[in-house]
Amino acid sequence: MKTFNILLKEINDVKNFVNIMCRFDTEMDLSSGRYIVDAKSIMGIFSLDLTKPIKAEIVADNGDAEALVKELAPYIVD
Fold this sequence. Notes:
With 78 residues, this protein is of the alpha+beta class. It contains 3 helices and 5 strands.
């Protein structure tokens, strides 16, 4: 399992993030506070608090998790 934080500042960031996620078979959860949503759910992401970084956790690696993380690099924060 790999865990990192992401920051989605604008609506287009959320759209692009979900589009990237949908191209991969890797399963990822996003969590903010006590809420956890599927990273491929645009409505789920909008239900989170997007004013601060969101915890991203890869829960099922189907072999392409490293490629996914490289694609998501613009959204990854410390």
